Task: structure prediction
Amino acid sequence: MEDGRAIPFVRTRLFGQMFLQFAIQGAYAPVLGRYLETLGLTPTQQGFVLLAGCVAPVILPLIAGQSVDRWFPGQKVLSVCYFLTGGLLIAAGTVRDCTPLIWLSFLVAMFFVPTMALANALSFHHLADARRDFPIVRVGGTLGYIGAGWLLTAWMKAMQAYGVDRSLGDSLYLAGLIAFVNAFYCLTLPDTPPKRDAAEKFALGKVLAMLKDPSFAVLSVLSFVMMIFASFYYFKTSNFMPTVGVPDEWISTVMSVGQVFEIGMMFLLAWLYRRLGAKGIITLGLVCWLARFTIFAMYPQRGPVVAAQILHGACFAFALAATMIYVDRICTPDVRGSMQSFLGWVMGLGTLLGAWVSSAVQDAYTVGKVANWPRIWTVPAVGMAVVLVVFVVAFRARDTEEKAAGS
Result:
């Protein structure tokens, strides 16, 4: 691990990259399901568009991880990916039919999804103490996600005030512009050269060999299953919000409540990780996922639903970010990109299946055009409960955590 102090303002620069990284996602992801619905797409057609966005990441992240570990500088790979993502997102904002949206969803995901793992790996490469510093850097992503959602809401409210009718498709234009900015910004980041002279030329092979460890294998399988059910939140909440009285123009802002609290949770992550260890902190995150889905299922009214968004901070920080830190701690530095990409690939497979499952469940519990949301949300609630129980029973952390106070 490089000494982050050797590079001027390294944490600030990585913070800025994370801000832009998640601003792209925050601009369009919270409202994508609702936008597809406003285009007149059926739940099944929406599922195909979302599914296409999950197919591409099944292969490319593994190649992207190998490329930054062995072939090309990480910051340049990120720049190229963001530039292509920007053009494709803007193109997606111009179309209204299902088939071209499916193809554009596939292409956007092909180049954008790998950047999430690669941005993590780049940060881990340059931070002196990733367990201490990564949560702070990752807060930049949270702020970017929030800021983009609020900017979209402000834009749409301003257009309404001037009598201009704009659609949620503007979210794609906004995301595309941010992606272009990030493409240029990445070229200013510290050089992150590949390890071309590493003894193991196939970095992914070294990561896959770690699956012989039962602990890592269990975590990989459960990460896949967890994302199947987490996908219900990411893909269906924007469809759910209008049914509890949240107007379209406020969906992004209401969903960003979770990101606001995520900031505090990310600052707490390093402290809690030291005291609870990997297993304790990830367990806490899974409990929060279960609690949120349970609230959605049992209390489908605006007050409880908006309040439940508070749990998103703990859901992300303790279940997902903690997993990213854990796998970085148990891998060797020369396969850092491939490890993060492998984790992204596993979660991407879960998201792929989750896109189909969530739409199929919505179809199954929809009569006419009225969805039975309590029953829909019961499915991921039960699923997360199963994941939680299996994780507690079967997972054994093997990083060298010192849980004593003051460690």
Remarks:
- Residues 257-298 form the longest helix (42 residues).
- Residues 4-394 form a domain with the Growth Hormone; Chain: A; fold (CATH 1.20.1250.20).
- Strands lie at 366-367, 370-371.
